[in-house]
Design a protein that fits this description.
- With 175 residues, the protein is mainly α.
- It folds into two domains: 4-47, Arc Repressor Mutant, subunit A (Orthogonal Bundle), CATH 1.10.10.60; 60-173, Tetracycline Repressor, domain 2.
- Helix content is 75%, strand content 0%.
- It has helices at residues 4-23, 30-37, 41-47, 52-71, 77-90, 92-105, 114-130, 136-154, 161-173.
- The longest helix is centred in the first third of the chain and has 20 residues, at 4-23.
- The chain is elongated.
- Keywords: DNA-binding.
- Residues 6-66 form the HTH tetR-type domain.
- Residues 29-48 bind DNA.
- It comes from [Actinomadura] parvosata subsp. kistnae.
């Protein structure tokens, strides 16, 4: 049974997801989120204080899919690249939150920090892309693909998901 408190939390999370994607984490206040759901700032803070608890709750469901992406066996490098594109497009608002906002706020690379987790995820993807024979060409293509996916997903929140997916898949074919 869903309680009123659960519904309120869900509405707050939905508004935060949308506002963080639109404006960025740093530019979105608890007051902005409260206004979007018709609550007071105090009511939002009751559920999520400090604001980074909101971000962490938005990120936690992605962690399982991230691990599944990295742990799954793929028939080929191309199959992994396609799955990576799908992941980047599906979670582009969360990737923006990680890349532009949370990582910028966390200047350290201390073990377990957001920046450390981003670096570990990136390095694991890179290792899967280059495989066992990381020659110069595949290394360059892998970094280029990671850059295209990261920024292509992050900077296109205003475009339809299908269009972003199609273009990124086309770019990935060059890989």
């Amino acid at each position: 049974m869903t309680t009123s408190s659960d519904d309120t939390r869900s509405r707050i999370l939905a508004a935060a997801r949308e506002l963080f994607a639109e404006r960025g984490y740093a530019a979105t206040s608890l007051s902005d989120i409260a206004a979007a759901v018709g609550l007071t700032k105090t009511a939002v803070a009751y559920h999520f204080h400090p604001k980074d608890r909101l971000a962490l709750e938005l990120l936690s469901p992605v962690a399982g899919d991230m691990l599944a992406l990295l742990d799954a066996p793929y028939a080929s490098r191309a199959a992994f690249v396609e799955a990576l594109v799908e992941f980047a497009v599906r979670y582009r608002s969360v990737i923006r939150l990680f890349m532009e906002d949370l990582a910028a706020d966390d200047a350290t690379t201390a073990p377990g920090s957001e920046r450390d987790q981003i670096a570990t995820f990136r390095d694991t993807i890179y290792a899967k892309l280059v495989g066992d024979d990381p020659g110069p060409e595949i290394r360059l293509k892998s970094w280029a693909l990671l850059g295209a996916l990261q920024w292509g997903a992050v900077k296109t929140a205003d475009l339809p998901e299908e269009q972003v997916r199609d273009v990124l898949l086309e770019i990935a074919k060059a890989f």
